[in-house]
Amino acid sequence: MEKMYLLWGVLALLMSAEARPNIIIIMADDMGWGDIGVNWPQTVDTPTIDQLAQQGLRLTDFHAGASVCTPSRAALLTGRLGLRTGVTKNFGADALGGIPSNETTVAEILQAAGYRTAMLGKWHLGTRKGHHPLDKGFQSYLGVPYSLDMGCADPPGANIPACPACPEDNSVYRFVSAPESCYMGTALPLYQDKTVSHQPVELAQLTTMYAEFAKNFIQNASSSAPYFLYAALSHMHVPLAQAEKYSNVTGRGEYADTLREMDGLVESILSAVGDSVNNTLIWFTSDNGPWQVKCGLAGSVGPYLGMWQASDQGGGGGSVAKMTVWEAGHRVPSILYWPGHIQAGRVSGALTSALDIVPTLTALGEGNLPSDRQFDGTDMTPIITGSSETIRNVLYHPNSGVGESGVIGAVRIDNYKVVYYSGGVPDCSGGAGPEQNLTDTPLVFDVGSDDSESSPLDKTSSEYQQIVELATQYLLDLQHNISTDNTSSVDYQSGEQGRVCCDQDSPICRCPWD
Ligand SMILES: *[C@@H]1O[C@H](CO)[C@@H](O)[C@H](O)[C@H]1NC(C)=O
Ligand SMILES: *[C@@H]1O[C@H](CO)[C@@H](O)[C@H](O)[C@H]1NC(C)=O
Ligand SMILES: *[C@@H]1O[C@H](CO)[C@@H](O)[C@H](O)[C@H]1NC(C)=O
Ligand SMILES: *[C@@H]1O[C@H](CO)[C@@H](O)[C@H](O)[C@H]1NC(C)=O
Ligand SMILES: *[C@@H]1O[C@H](CO)[C@@H](O)[C@H](O)[C@H]1NC(C)=O
Ligand SMILES: *[C@@H]1O[C@H](CO)[C@@H](O)[C@H](O)[C@H]1NC(C)=O
Ligand SMILES: *[C@@H]1O[C@H](CO)[C@@H](O)[C@H](O)[C@H]1NC(C)=O
């Protein structure tokens, strides 16, 4: 009898260990749908990521929660749209605020469920007290807390236009909060937990440090508790820079070299996981599509050409990717690798979103979603196990860059996409097309058959009218839902107290690199 109990005990233990995988989210920055070989065969620089897809699940209709960094990351970590969290646009380098304390991150949920948690890389949700990764569920952190172009570095890395290295001279210090400016008053910092350990960071060493941190964290994992690692890579955001080993490794330019280095970093993480792969879910994705104004230093949109926007008869040109509601802005790579649990080589066209990450990881980690708020994501476990082909048929894409930030700029209903805003975002030529509010007569595309969004439905057709009416109703429902929900507000002010600074006496906040 006792033996029986023991056997059941051991079995239960094995099963519960099975039920709670280690979880690694790898999130690339500004990486296009076409930047991985399995999505777009012209791309040959991602052998490791391709292998994850060949041995795992590839989602082909997966969308970021917004099409710029900050709101996309907030949506991923909270499972809620910016209209609820208040996080609708990017924070500046010297932001006073950050992700609201009332919003709960997936790291907080998993930590409460017994996970060990760590984060590396780009946070971009605030650095001050209450808003730092260590205040939002991560037990350790290493990273540049925002985009690589939000502070100077020496050497500066590749950007368009080229930015100079950090000034040495006190006279050039300016307090600037515009994130697009080459000259921030603050050199690019590297945090180790809550301490700024290096400033400016050496871009070429960043990848090695990130790989080391991931390896230490993973290998230090005890068998008694599963872990959660959020690896928010600095790749592929400008300025581009690589370790010596990857410099001109492809002979096809900075972008290809940097992509190779990123793939190498994914390989380092995978090899640190080693024999525990079968108990570790690795989920690779990107925060938004390519930043097209960066020309050859921007990634590939794959087939998502946004032809209506690009044409003179339509939107009059400009970007169709990052900052827009066109497919290349928010449709991003998404690969789930978990041998023994996910059937190798599966491809799913289910309509899915980074908003689904919170409910999915909460289910896998046996955590609890806060009960005092609504979520925009859905548990994706049925897609992962293959027990279902769909989890939703409606998805909202917020404006990020044109129109009012956070306002819903497009609605997906099955394969139909209703587009309410266009234009206003520059591409490589510098042209942007006029910013247009199309709300009164939106465009409707069938993105199931028209990847490049070239042929809107005829506005006089009954098909068009039905879809637009349906979308209007969904938007009203969402508005009602949000108006009865607990929502948060965000302080978007910048100020000198928000400046991340190693040495307040140094005009550009330098501290020694050692
Ligand atoms: C390793 O894990 C222990 C206990 O879980 C923790 O105290 C320590 O800080 C960890 N070390 C690293 C390098 O993560
Ligand atoms: C990069 O490598 C190619 C050959 O692979 C070579 O022709 C080219 O000169 C190299 N460029 C630089 C900047 O070293
Ligand atoms: C992981 O699972 C797969 C499929 O069940 C198996 O072939 C492989 O040997 C396992 N790997 C390890 C390291 O246990
Ligand atoms: C809003 O939050 C309060 C406090 O946590 C809670 O009592 C209330 O039920 C929440 N409302 C909704 C709609 O979830
Ligand atoms: C776009 O137009 C609609 C309808 O005319 C209007 O209600 C809405 O406020 C406008 N949106 C913005 C961001 O101005
Ligand atoms: C709000 O939306 C969520 C997610 O779709 C749903 O579960 C909830 O019932 C809705 N609540 C209200 C009050 O409409
Ligand atoms: C946080 O939530 C509480 C109660 O749910 C609410 O009273 C408060 O206004 C919220 N704070 C912010 C900054 O949204």
From TrEMBL:
Signal peptide start and end residues: 1-19
Family as reported in the entry's similarity comment: Belongs to the sulfatase family.
Cofactor: Ca(2+)
Taxonomic superkingdom: Eukaryota
Any one GO molecular function term: arylsulfatase activity
Metal-binding in keyword set: yes
Protein name listed in UniProt: Sulfatase N-terminal domain-containing protein
Keyword Glycosyltransferase: no
Ranges where the Sulfatase N-terminal domain occurs: 21-364
Keywords: Calcium, Hydrolase, Metal-binding, Signal
Pfam annotation, one family: Sulfatase
InterPro entries: Alkaline_phosphatase_core_sf, Sulfatase, Sulfatase_CS, Sulfatase_N
The organism's taxonomic lineage, starting at the top: Eukaryota, Metazoa, Ecdysozoa, Arthropoda, Hexapoda
